[in-house]
Amino acid sequence: MTVVLVPISHEKLTELRDTRITGRVMGPVTGFAVTAALRDTFGLAVADDEEADRTALLLAGLKSLMSYGKRLVVVVDASAADDGDPLGEVTVPGISLHDMTAFFADAPEAAPAVSAAARAVAGLDLDAAWDTVEAQALMTEHDLLWYGPEELDAFLSTWALVFLD
User: Are 13 and 26 in contact (CB under 8 A)?
Assistant: First the structure.
């Protein structure tokens, strides 16, 4: 099993929550993991595990921002196919709520910076988005908040009030 950080939309996160009732699996999904290629790209040694994990989280958050306009990332323990991507992109055949160990999202006070970064990265690829001033400011000034799986129901209702347009 590999720790995979999956960029996700609010709607897909709700769908993931509902897998506890439906028993269905979502997938395949693309996520980010600490791979040899990611370590090589960012010059991270094996001893740099914490920084490698943070880098994978930042990449997943940025991909979520690019895809959905918000930074929302699910952490799953799953079998993943390492695609050899230099940024650690991997493919997971399927996930359910049972696989989720945590999730990350922006704090409400980050909403203006999230909106500015989302506009700046629209239409860019991940490499170009990473280098934008707005994305770097968002990643530097606003850490993603960690949530446990038991907080999912409350989060989904509260987050919708703050971040959904």
Answer: no
**How far is Cα 104 from Cα 159, in angstroms, rounded to an integer?**
12
Q: Give 145's contacts (C-beta < 8 A, 6+ positions apart).
A: 104, 105, 106, 107
Checking if the pLDDT of 165 tops 90, the result is no
d(CA 125, CA 123): 7
Mean pLDDT calculated for residue range 8-24: 86
Which of 10-24, 39-53, 55-69, 143-157 has the least mean pLDDT?
A: 10-24
- Residue 56, Cα to own-chain centre: how many angstroms? 8
Sign of CA dihedral 64, 69, 21, 154: positive
Amino acid making up residue 104: F
What is the C-alpha to C-alpha distance for residues 129 and 135, in angstroms, rounded to an integer? Answer: 7
Record the pTM: 0.93
**pLDDT number for residue 77:** 94
